[in-house]
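Hi P.,

Sorry for the delay on this. The queue was packed all week, but I finally got your sequence through. Input first:
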Amino acid sequence: MEIAPMVKPPNSRIALPQERLLQLDRLKDHYEASSVSQAIRAMITHLAELGVIEHEIPGIEIRKIGKHVSVMFDEGERVAFTSEGAQALVGHIRERLATKGRQGPLINIDHGYTLRGAGGAVAIEIGGVEKKLAPDVIDEFADLIEAQIKHSDD
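Then the structure:
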């Protein structure tokens, strides 16, 4: 039996057999995604909506606590946001993603977060821990916060 060669996609840290790469490409077409990463996000979102898996981003905890939305990166400090503060964070993230070119850091002292970068990747610091997230991952982070805002307003 011949084993298919492992193929490492550009800018990836995993190697996959050619058959899996073709399946990922079909998945990308199915979800009309512009990248494999976005296709995987769409698949995860779909599975979470079906209740098959929890919708989460590893290393990031987003929860509703009373009328607040809390965010914690890894083992950092948990930061609680009012609905307005959480919505401000989401708005700042979306602005950063829409921006082309360099931007200076955004430091929000009132709500305890810092954003750096724009467009290609955004670094966000919350609770003393900084994470540099790919555009589709930080957009998903914003979506998950928005979902908790809706729950906190109930």
